Fold this sequence. Notes:
alpha+beta, five-stranded antiparallel sheet, 8 strands
Amino acid sequence: MRGRSAFTLIELLLATMLVGVLTTLSVLTFQAVTHGWQVSTDYMDKMQRTDYALNQVINGLRSMYYPHDGEQNEKYGFCLTDNGDGENPRTSDVIEWSKTGPAIVGTKNTIADTVHRVQVMVLEEGDNDYEEPIQKTGLYARLCGDAALIPKDDNDDTDYSFGNAELYQPVLIADGVVGLNCRVLKKQEDAEDGAVRNASQNDRKKFEDEFAESNAVPYKVELTFFIEKPDESFRSQTERAPMVRIIRIPIHEQSLDGAAPPSADGKKNNEEKKGVKRRK
């Protein structure tokens, strides 16, 4: 009896189908892994950019400027516009303050070496409230030199505040940021509760969404940034990841009366304490 020397047509068809199924599964698996890697990389990139932008805003708040001329002046105060919970551009808060230094404005900007005012907000793609429509949703800043330093004649009645949108077009700081929420701790006395001071407990009940004292600055500022969701086709259940920071404002005490820098009082108190110890 002669042995079989070839495959039957049915066997060839089955083998072809099996190879096709295995190839399809391999391609789908590869695409899923590649897509997941791309989504994760993009999300991590957004987080890094958001973290950088957040550090810029933090440095800008720490370099807040307030003149110590013995008077309170609303031109240099901290302003907070509360628009909601900040989880999307339309409910994001707007913050505004005067500062010095290159934070937010950059080292090459001419106003970095002088007193200037910044306004930080989240704007949505297509927003046309400004001179040019917004191209990308993200964190934006508007920059304004100190009005006292702007050359003008006696007949110049130009509005140099941020209310004049034609003068100060928003500049993109970081895309991928879809929300900003700001809360404040108004006075140092409000932080005397140990639960608020203890960061490990994350108890921030005394922070408020409103700050009406536009002629002063708060004791602490809490910033919450919301990052754009990853691709929903990959992780449909993923929520926006908030990034939270609390910043203590160094010139808070100074802004209460516009008097000497806070370091002067601190130095005086330290000298008095040393004197008490020496007398003992």
